[in-house]
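A.,

Following up on our hallway conversation. Structure tokens first:
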């Protein structure tokens, strides 16, 4: 039979692959469990004409191929937007990424002295071979700065101690920085000859679809349909059958008998791998089941625009409130808010699916968000007109101490299953940005089109580059980069 491809998930990874496969004339079917939206965690939801992200997504990549893909899909509907964000800590707002001299000034003379002394101690007596986030970050910045600008927010995001988060996470998100280099570079901001040298976290502007990232993926879906790609919505995949080198997709509410030569899965490893028949080996199955995920919910507040702020988002490091990050959707794009006299904010609460925060009713969550915005000083409660709640399961793969070994056991267990590619964030259990997810899928599609393995999708690094190399320094512009998610 000629090649047929099944894609599980209509997020950035799945739709990127589908678009390339459709252009190549390869029969492709996407299975998306959502009834309405495509884009996965990069979707944009719409409530009464107000558009909002599920997490906030900047469109910036070091990969020209990814940037060209975005341009080809959305063309003139991509805006160039200024980047603006801050950190809220101890009733004070700090620029983000942190400008070293400003941060030390706002912390005060004594706290600044303790930060520098702590940093010097870390340089003289570092933790040898750091295995967790606390030790890794303390080595780079000292224990004091770690406790102020890293610990609270990181533990709020992940719900576990920094001692239980793999050092891989810190090395991935804050590569090569130290306090001394940040202060040194604060005096002279380096210029960049080309985009490839720009550090993603330090960019001053980015592209953004007029009505949110979902606009990109809805347009991509429409273009896929025009190319003959089939898109099945409300199609939750609960298993895969592999027989005679062909795949059959098992859905929750529908029988689907078509056979496929390839499957590209962006669904979570934990959900898919244990439900492959014939079963993967016991070790791989147990490893898949032990992988963990962090969930979150967004409380959207529609308000009178009387206390507006210009940030795209604000990271909330203060432990006195539960909110972790606040989005300002009007600052992402004015087209997200239909009435100029109104504002729309999204408060993100990190939780585990089924815990107390996740189970709160929507009215209580809206009240909590309203009170915390008032407490932080970002709005007056009487200006809130309406609220809306979105819950997002499996938003972030957890980098616990043993995650890497578990993923490798899964990969080893899948070797006998020809034609199966794991792609994207949850499909590979890699907490990277959408350009990385896209690139893994695009390389899988290129392999299928070529009929041979040109690329190993696992060699795509966090900057959507196909290479294996040591970590590069990113101590640019005199700024420290706390561990925060995109």
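Then the amino acids I'd put at each of the 486 positions:
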């Amino acid at each position: 039979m000629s090649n047929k491809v099944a894609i599980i998930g209509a997020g950035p990874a799945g739709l990127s692959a589908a678009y390339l496969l459709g252009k190549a004339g390869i029969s492709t079917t996407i299975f998306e469990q959502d009834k309405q939206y495509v884009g996965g965690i990069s979707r944009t939801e719409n409530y009464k004409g107000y558009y909002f992200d599920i997490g906030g997504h900047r469109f910036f990549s070091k990969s020209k191929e990814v940037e060209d893909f975005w341009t080809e899909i959305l063309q003139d509907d991509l805006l160039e937007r200024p980047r603006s964000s801050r950190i809220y800590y101890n009733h004070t707002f700090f620029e983000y990424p942190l400008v070293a001299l400003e941060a030390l000034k706002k912390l005060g003379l004594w706290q600044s002295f303790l930060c520098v002394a702590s940093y010097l101690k870390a340089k003289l007596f570092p933790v040898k071979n750091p295995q967790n986030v606390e030790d890794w970050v303390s080595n780079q910045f000292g224990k004091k700065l770690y406790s102020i600008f890293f610990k609270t927010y990181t533990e709020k995001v992940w719900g576990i101690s920094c001692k239980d988060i793999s050092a891989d996470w810190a090395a991935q998100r804050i590569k090569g920085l130290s306090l001394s280099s940040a202060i040194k570079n604060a005096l002279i901001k380096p210029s960049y000859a080309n985009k490839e040298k720009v550090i993603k976290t330090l960019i001053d502007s980015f592209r953004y679809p007029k009505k949110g990232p979902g606009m990109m993926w809805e347009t991509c879906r429409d273009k896929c349909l025009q190319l003959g790609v089939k898109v099945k919505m409300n199609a939750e995949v609960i298993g895969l059958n592999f027989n005679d080198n062909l795949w059959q997709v098992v859905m929750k509410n529908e029988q689907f008998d078509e056979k496929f030569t390839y499957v590209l899965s962006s669904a979570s490893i934990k959900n898919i791998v244990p439900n492959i028949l014939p079963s993967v080996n016991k070790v791989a199955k147990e490893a898949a089941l032990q992988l963990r995920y962090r969930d979150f919910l967004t409380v959207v507040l529609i308000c009178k625009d009387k206390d507006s702020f210009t940030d795209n988002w604000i990271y909330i490091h203060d432990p006195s409130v539960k909110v972790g990050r606040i989005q300002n959707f009007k600052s992402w794009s004015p087209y997200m808010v239909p009435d100029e006299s109104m504002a729309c904010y999204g408060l993100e609460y990190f939780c585990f699916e089924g815990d107390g925060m996740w189970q709160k009713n929507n009215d209580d969550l809206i009240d909590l968000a309203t009170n915390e915005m008032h407490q932080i000083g970002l709005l007056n409660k009487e200006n809130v007109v309406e609220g809306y709640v979105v819950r997002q399961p499996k938003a972030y793969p957890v980098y616990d101490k043993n995650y890497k070994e578990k993923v490798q056991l899964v990969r080893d267990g899948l070797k006998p299953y020809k034609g199966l590619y794991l792609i994207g964030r949850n499909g590979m259990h890699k907490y990277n940005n959408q350009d990385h997810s896209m690139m893994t899928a695009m390389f899988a599609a290129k392999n299928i089109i070529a009929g041979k393995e040109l690329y190993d999708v696992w060699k795509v690094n966090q900057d959507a580059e196909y290479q294996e190399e040591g970590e590069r320094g990113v101590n640019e512009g005199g700024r420290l980069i706390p561990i925060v998610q995109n």
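The chain is about 35% helix and 25% strand. Curious whether your intuition agrees with the design.

B.
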